[in-house]
Give the backbone structure.
Amino acid sequence: MSPLWTAEALAVAMGGRPVGAQPARIGGISIDSRTLQPGDAFFAIKGETFDGHDFATAAIKAGASLLVVAEGKLPALGRIGAPMIVVPDVLAALEAAGIAARARTRAKVIGVTGSVGKTTAKEALRKALGACGSVHASDKSFNNHWGVPLTLARMPEDCDYAIFEIGMNHPGEIRQLVSFVRPHVAIITAIAAAHLGYFSSLEEIARAKAEIFEGVVPGGHALLNRDDKQWKLLDKAARDAGIEHVWSFGENGRSTFRLASFEADGDASNVVMKMAGQEITFTIGAPGRHIVQNALAVMGAVYLSGADIHKASSALAEFRAERGRGQRTSLKHPSGGEIVVIDESYNANPTSMKAALSLLAAAAVPAGGRRIAVLGDMLELGNHSRKLHEALAGPVAQSQADIVLTAGKEIKALADMLPENVVSQHVEGVDALKPLLLDMVRPGDVVMIKSSNSMGFSRLVEALKQIFAATGDGAAYSNTHV
């Protein structure tokens, strides 16, 4: 099996200076000594909080075959005695390695951006294209100024397909990242009021997302959401960027990859899609209209990449929502029966919040069970925050939630809007919310947990899993277990 890199090739790619006896093979690229695998090259990136050079010794102990370090840090690292490649700037060196990896691959490259659904679309593409060949894709949500170069540098030379998630919260960020990725197919999933605190309007967000078109290779494709209100703006932006092949997906009758029908089926969705003069019927193993919309984009990208659409569509039956993005877990309640937890704790904006509440509305609830919405702040909405939180009152009502629990300063605007006939309670933060939720749940309940990631609502999901996993035999439980 060929190595990911040779030390010589990596040094040439980065314009670095080798120091010490260089390894014959480099098995991977790491920027974190805690997750580094033996044989990896460790890039000592300096971040906002930590400097990777401070963890060089830990990286060697973990089995790093090589250190990539900054020239200015070399005197302090001289006693380590490990093989190194010395560069002026480590992040710039990682970018150079990523650019070199992109240049050497023959893979079909797909770039995904959008305000919502990026990671879901990326993971569904991984599943679909995995049935058609070897796939390299971003780990987790590695979609920023270091995540994209890292994913590129980790790309095997011989993969068939490569999928990159590209994020931003300020204008200009996507422009640089897509210049590294140079996709054959660029997808914009949807435009929503995410990071609205940094933008004046949805149109401005759409223009920032449209920067992805600037990096599409000649002869490449743009794939846009025809149901999105910003579709016309994005369509024009793609054509203005010189993209000849602009396609669309959605329920709109003029969509290239058009939703004919879909039907919820428990924890899955059955989809009928019309594309390329044919009707494709498939199942995607996660519920929700928003998941179906992503599946249309996935099938469009599969087709535009020249992959087998029938193999890909069959593989989507095995797709599952990820942790924090709609993952469902059934837990045994100590009193008998089960509770279902819908984990939407990774992020939140008005569009994704409405989608999560729709999932709660569609969830099957047994007799005696209740729908419980556990909601936290949607962050980075700036001056629009109060209005957008208040506007969730309608979707909450439509979710048929029996109980609404809220925590956070911004979500209080919603809590104040809820009618008196809705059972609700608002607290300051997640620590106050946890004992309240644990004491409240009972057999048959469906609990949907949604907030922006930094609110820490993932701790509520883990608390439910820990306490009920530990007491699934029906024994009494106590909050002290968590």
